[in-house]
Automatic annotation (TrEMBL):
GO cellular component, one term: vacuolar membrane
A biological-process GO annotation: nucleus-vacuole junction assembly
Organism: Phytophthora palmivora
Major site of localization recorded for this protein: membrane
Topology versus the membrane: Lipid-anchor
Name by which UniProt lists this protein: Vacuolar protein 8
Keyword rRNA-binding annotated: no
Family: Belongs to the beta-catenin family.
Residues making up the signal peptide according to the UniProt record: none
Phylogenetic lineage: Eukaryota, Sar, Stramenopiles, Oomycota, Peronosporomycetes
Length: 836
C-alpha cells in the first residue's frame, strides 16, 4: 500500500525505480494474497505513467496484474488500470499482444459501457492503440469490442467519439471483421456520423465506411442511404475526407446497383472535382471510380453532359502514366461499341488525340506501360469506328504510333487485337488509304496476320482487303514485291485469310502493270489453286482475277500452261452466277488466240461452253456464246464442233432477246457454215437453224440484221442447191429484199451478196424475179459503192444467163441501162459482169 501511495506521485518514480521498487511491485503482483496483488497493481498502474518503464512492465508480466485491476468494480480502480493498459500498448506492439491474449479485452468491453467520461476516454484510446496492430483486429472484434465502440462513437465528447471512430476505422481495415460490422448493423450509424458537425468525426467515419465497402455485403446500406452524404463529403476541403470519399466511391463503382444513386445524387460532378485534388491517391481513386462508372451504358449520355469528356481529357494531359491508364480506360468505355456514335465524335473534338498520341509515344517498349498502351489502343480502335473521326486520327499521326506499338507488344494479344481493329477501321475509309500505306499500315497488317489470335487475324485480313482494293496501292503492293505475303495468306487454312488473299488477287488483276508480276511471281498458279476452294467468296474473287489476267493476250499462253482450261471446265459447273460469268469470260478471252482454240477443243471445253449458254445470267450467256463463236472460226475443228452439238444451243440463242447474244450466235453459225467442213451446212438445215436466222433479218438493229445475213450468206455459198432452196422455202427472200432498202451500207452489201448466191439456183432465181428483185438491183446500180456495184453486176449476169425469158423483164426494169453504166465503172469486176 505504501509503495502504491508513493508511486502516485510521478516525481518519486525515478528514485523508486532506481532503488528497485518496480521489480518488487512486479513480484508482489504475483502474490497469493489478493489485497497484496491489488495494491501492487495500483503501484504498477502508477508506474505505467512513465513511458520509459512500459516495456519493462510488460516484459516482467505486469500486464496480468493490471488486467486483474481492470476487473475491479470500483470505477476509479478499473479506470486507472485501463489508463495503464493504454500507456503500455501505445508504443509497444508486444504489449498489445499480451493484453489481447492475456484476457484484457473482456474488462475493456465492460468498461466501455461505463457512463464515466474519463473511463470512456481511456477505453476508447486503449481500443484505438490496440487496433493499430493488424494481427489482433479480428480478436478484438470477436471479443465484443464493436458494441461499446459504437456507443462511444456516438458520445457527445469529441475526444471519445474521435478515438472510437478511429478504432472502428482501424478494425474495418481487416476484411474478416466486416461480417461482425454487418451483424451489429453499423452501417446506418456510420452514415449518420458523416453528418457530424466536427470534421474529425466524419473524417474517421468516412474512413470506416471506405474500409467496410471492400466487402460487397456492406454496399446495400450505403447505396440505400449513404450516397448523398458521401457525395457531399467529397466536396470537403479536408484532404483526408476527400480521399475517403473518393475511396468509398471507387469501391462502390464496380457495383452496377450503385451507379444510379451516384449519378443522380451528383456523384459524377464530385468525382470530376476530386480529379483536381492535390493528393495523388485521391485523384487515383477518383479516376478509378470514373472508369467503372463509364462502363455503364445507361448513364454515358449524362456522363458526357455533366462535363466528363473535358474533365478526363484535361486530367489526361496533366498526370503521370500511373493515372493515365484509368483515364483512358474511362474514355474507352464511353466510346465502346454500345455507346452513342456522337460521343465518339465529341471525344475527338474535345482534343483527345494529342494526349493519346503522347501516351503511345512515351517509351513504347516499357512493359510497365502495357495497361496504358492497351487502353490507348482500345480507345483509338473505338474512335476509329466512327467515320467522321477516321481522317483526323490519321492526320494526327496515330497510325504511325499504332504501327510502332504493334512491333513492341507482340506478347500482348489484347493490344494486337485493338491495333488490328483500329487499322482495319482506318483502312475502310478510301480517303485514308494512301496516307496509312505511307505510314506503314500495310506491312503492320501483314505482320499481324501471323498472330495466333483469331480476332487479330480477322481484323488484319479485313484491313489488307481494304488496302489492296485501292487502285494506287494495289500497284505499289505488286511492284514492291509484296505479293508473297498474300500468296502465303491464300495457302493458309484460315478462311478469312483465304478470302483476303482472293480479294487482293482480284484487285491486283485490275491493273495491267500488275499482271506480269502476278504471272511471274507465282500469283497465277495460286489463283488457279484457289479457284478450286469450296468457299464461294474465294472462288468468285479468284475466277474474277483469272478472267482479268486472261483478258491480256500476252499472258494467255501462261494461263493455259498453268492448267486454266481444265480448272475452268470444273469451275464452270458451279451454280453461282458470278462464278459462271467470270468462267465464261475466261473462255471468251482465251478463245481469241488462234493457237489456243484447238487446245480448248482438245481439252473438252465445248460441253462447258454449251452448259454456260444455259445460265440464267445474261452476261454469262454472252461470254459463252462469244467463246463458241471464236472457237468456231478455227478451220480444222468445225465439223467436230457441230458433232459435239453446237447447232442446237446456238439456234436457241439466236431467238434470245439480247442483241449481243443473237449476234454472237449468228456469227458462230456463219463460221461453222463457212468452208464446207463435213456436213455442217446440211446439219444447220436439218436442226432448224435457217428460220431463226431469217428472223434476224427483221430485227430492228442493223448489227443483228448484218450478222443474220452473214450467216445466211455463209450457208448459201457454194454449189449445194439444197441450202439455197432451204432459205427460199423458209421465207428468206422477202426479208433479204427488204434489206436492200436499208440505210446501213454493210447490210445492203451483204444482202446483195446473199441474193447473188441464192440466184445461182434456177428455182430460186425464178422466185427472185417474180418478187421484183430486178427493180431493187437496178436501183442500187446508181450508188457509188464499188462492192455494191459488183454484187449488182453479178446478179444481173445471173439473170440474163439463165433464160431469154428474163431479158424483157430486165429491159423493162432498166437493166440494160444499168449494165451500160456498170461498164463505165473503173472496176474490172464490174466491167466484166456488165460486158457479160
Amino acid at each position: 500500500m505504501a509503495l502504491s501511495n508513493l508511486a502516485a506521485n510521478e516525481s518519486n518514480h525515478d528514485h523508486m525505480i532506481h532503488r528497485g521498487v518496480l521489480k518488487v511491485a512486479l513480484r508482489l503482483g504475483q502474490s497469493k494474497d489478493e489485497d497484496i496483488r491489488l495494491y501492487a497493481a495500483f503501484a504498477l498502474a502508477n508506474f505505467a505513467g512513465n513511458t520509459a518503464q512500459c516495456a519493462a512492465i510488460g516484459d516482467e508480466g505486469g500486464i496480468a496484474a493490471l488486467i486483474m485491476l481492470a476487473h475491479a468494480e470500483d470505477s476509479n480502480s478499473h479506470t486507472l488500470a485501463v489508463s495503464a493498459l493504454r500507456r503500455l500498448c501505445q508504443f509497444s506492439a508486444r504489449n498489445r499482444g499480451r493484453i489481447v491474449r492475456g484476457g484484457g479485452l473482456p474488462p475493456l468491453a465492460i468498461a466501455g459501457m461505463s457512463e464515466e467520461l474519463e473511463t470512456q476516454r481511456e477505453v476508447a484510446a486503449t481500443y484505438c492503440n490496440l487496433s493499430l496492430s493488424d494481427e489482433y483486429k479480428v480478436e478484438i472484434v470477436e471479443q465484443g469490442a464493436l458494441r461499446p465502440l459504437i456507443k462511444l462513437a456516438q458520445s457527445s465528447d469529441l475526444e471519445v467519439a474521435r478515438q472510437a471512430c478511429g478504432t472502428l476505422a482501424n478494425l474495418a481495415e481487416h476484411l474478416d471483421t466486416h461480417s461482425h460490422f454487418v451483424a451489429e448493423r453499423s452501417g446506418n450509424f456510420l452514415i449518420a456520423l458523416m453528418k457530424h458537425r466536427h470534421e474529425e468525426i466524419h473524417r474517421e467515419a468516412s474512413r470506416t465506411i471506405a474500409n467496410l465497402l471492400s466487402s460487397f455485403e456492406n454496399h446495400t446500406d450505403m447505396i440505400a442511404d449513404g450516397l448523398p452524404g458521401l457525395v457531399h463529403l467529397g466536396l470537403s476541403l479536408d484532404p483526408e475526407c476527400q480521399y475517403n470519399a473518393a475511396l468509398a466511391l471507387r469501391k462502390l463503382a464496380p457495383n452496377f446497383a450503385s451507379h444510379r444513386g451516384i449519378v443522380y445524387e451528383g456523384g459524377l460532378k464530385t468525382l470530376f472535382f476530386l480529379l483536381h485534388a492535390k493528393e495523388l491517391n485521391t485523384r487515383r481513386q477518383s479516376v478509378l471510380a470514373l472508369r467503372d462508372l463509364a462502363a455503364n451504358s445507361e448513364f454515358r449520355r449524362m456522363y458526357v453532359e455533366e462535363g466528363g469528356l473535358n474533365a478526363l481529357i484535361t486530367f489526361l494531359r496533366d498526370v503521370d502514366a500511373s493515372l493515365q491508364a484509368p483515364a483512358v480506360a474511362a474514355l474507352r468505355h464511353l466510346t465502346s461499341l454500345s455507346s452513342h456514335p456522337e460521343i465518339k465524335q465529341q471525344v475527338v473534338e474535345e482534343g483527345v488525340l494529342r494526349p493519346v498520341l503522347r501516351c503511345l509515344n512515351t517509351n513504347p517498349g516499357a512493359k510497365g506501360l502495357r495497361d496504358l498502351q492497351c487502353q490507348c489502343a482500345g480507345l483509338v480502335a473505338n474512335l476509329s469506328e466512327h467515320t467522321a473521326n477516321q481522317q483526323k486520327i490519321v492526320s494526327e499521326g496515330l497510325t504511325t504510333a499504332l504501327v510502332a506499338l504493334a512491333k513492341v507488344t507482340q506478347d500482348s494479344a489484347e493490344i494486337l487485337q485493338d491495333v488490328s481493329r483500329a487499322l482495319a477501321n482506318l483502312c475502310s475509309n478510301e480517303e485514308n488509304h494512301k496516307v496509312v500505306y505511307k505510314q506503314g499500315a500495310l506491312l503492320c497488317l501483314i505482320q499481324l496476320t501471323e498472330s495466333p489470335d483469331d480476332i487479330t487475324q480477322r481484323y488484319s485480313a479485313m484491313g489488307l482487303r481494304f488496302l489492296s482494293a485501292n487502285p494506287t496501292i494495289r500497284v505499289h503492293i505488286v511492284q514492291e514485291s509484296l505479293l508473297q505475303p498474300f500468296i502465303k495468306l491464300a495457302q493458309s487454312p484460315l478462311l478469312d485469310y483465304q478470302r483476303t488473299a482472293a480479294a487482293a488477287f482480284s484487285s491486283f488483276s485490275l491493273n495491267e502493270e500488275n499482271k506480269l508480276k502476278l504471272v511471274r511471281d507465282g500469283g497465277l498458279a495460286q489463283i488457279l489453286r484457289c479457284c478450286a476452294f469450296d468457299d464461294l467468296e474465294v472462288k468468285r474473287d479468284c475466277v474474277f482475277a483469272l478472267a482479268n489476267v486472261a483478258d491480256s493476250l500476252e499472258h494467255q499462253l501462261d494461263v493455259v500452261r498453268e492448267g486454266a482450261i481444265s480448272a475452268m471446265i470444273n469451275v464452270g459447273a458451279h451454280d453461282d452466277a458470278r462464278v459462271q460469268r467470270d468462267c465464261a469470260r475466261v473462255f471468251a478471252s482465251l478463245s481469241i488466240t488462234n493457237s489456243i482454240k484447238p487446245e480448248l477443243v482438245r481439252q473438252g471445253a465445248l460441253p462447258s461452253f454449251f452448259r454456260l449458254t444455259r445460265s440464267l445470267d445474261v452476261a454469262t450467256q454472252r461470254f459463252a456464246t462469244l467463246a463458241i463463236c471464236n472457237v468456231a472460226s478455227s478451220g480444222d475443228d468445225k465439223a467436230f464442233i457441230v458433232e459435239q452439238g453446237a447447232i442446237r444451243p446456238l439456234t436457241h440463242l439466236i431467238r434470245f432477246p439480247d442483241a449481243q447474244i443473237q449476234r454472237y450466235a449468228a456469227l458462230a453459225l456463219a463460221a461453222l457454215a463457212l468452208g464446207g467442213m463435213g456436213n455442217n451446212k446440211l446439219r444447220l438445215i436439218e436442226e432448224g437453224a435457217v428460220p431463226p436466222l431469217i428472223d434476224l433479218l427483221r430485227y430492228p438493229s442493223a448489227d443483228v440484221q448484218l450478222c443474220g445475213c452473214l450467216a445466211l450468206n455463209a450457208l448459201t455459198l457454194g454449189k449445194q442447191s439444197v441450202t439455197k432452196v432451204s432459205v427460199m422455202q423458209s421465207g428468206g427472200l422477202l426479208p433479204l429484199l427488204a434489206l436492200l432498202a436499208s440505210t446501213d451500207e454493210e447490210c445492203v452489201r451483204c444482202a446483195l451478196y446473199c441474193i447473188g448466191s441464192l440466184a445461182e439456183s434456177k428455182d430460186v432465181l425464178q422466185k427472185l424475179v417474180e418478187l421484183g428483185t430486178l427493180a431493187h438491183v437496178v436501183a442500187l446500180t446508181k450508188c457509188i459503192d464499188t462492192e455494191t456495184l459488183r454484187n449488182c453486176g453479178y446478179i444481173l449476169a445471173l439473170v440474163v444467163e439463165q433464160k431469154t425469158d428474163y431479158h424483157d423483164d430486165m429491159y423493162r426494169e432498166g437493166g440494160l441501162d444499168a449494165a451500160i453504166s456498170l461498164a463505165f465503172v473503173e472496176d474490172m469486176e464490174c466491167q466484166e459482169y456488165a460486158t457479160f
